[in-house]
Design a protein that fits this description.
single chain, about 160 residues
């Protein structure tokens, strides 16, 4: 008899704990939501093009369709106003060395830290999509032209 009473008390106690723990967990979760929303709102590229400013060391690799593999390394200067210049670069395209320099470009940085850029003009223009870190220190890019399967990174080395 004593054991059955203890068992009933124990069952009621565990039901009470289960019934009270669910609302407590829900209350804790709701209390955390404003902090999560605030944290998400504070991350972004709210400076727009100005976040992409300085000299960056760029590297990439991939394939030029119908030609062969490509690897590249160089320096790009982004001015923080949507304009840029390819200061120097060395490309190895299927064994042929190419060294373009002085090629101008334009870019747009969106508030979610994505963006697009174009270097050159006319038929020889190259187009890219990218993601930039909120502090502007690192860019991960992919060329979007049909004849190229190329991607890479750029790392800021100075804020000039």
């Amino acid at each position: 008899m004593i054991f059955s009473r203890l068992a009933n008390v124990s069952r009621r106690s565990s039901r009470f704990k289960a019934a009270t723990s669910i609302p407590m967990l829900a209350a804790l979760a709701l209390a955390a939501i404003p902090h999560v929303v605030r944290a998400d709102v504070s991350v972004g590229c709210f400076l727009g093009n100005a976040v992409m400013k300085g000299t960056y060391v760029v590297s990439g690799k991939g394939t030029v369709v119908g030609v062969g593999p490509i690897v590249l390394a160089g320096e790009v200067v982004y001015n923080g106003d949507g304009t840029a210049v390819l200061a120097s670069e060395t490309q190895n395209v299927n064994g042929t060395i190419i060294r373009p320099s002085g090629v101008t470009g334009t870019y747009t940085v969106n508030h979610d830290c994505t963006g697009s850029k174009t270097f050159g003009s006319g038929a020889s223009a190259q187009h890219f999509d990218f993601v930039i870190s909120p502090d502007g220190s690192t860019i991960t890019w992919v060329e979007t032209d049909a004849n190229a399967v190329i991607s890479g990174k750029a790392v800021r080395v100075s804020n000039d």
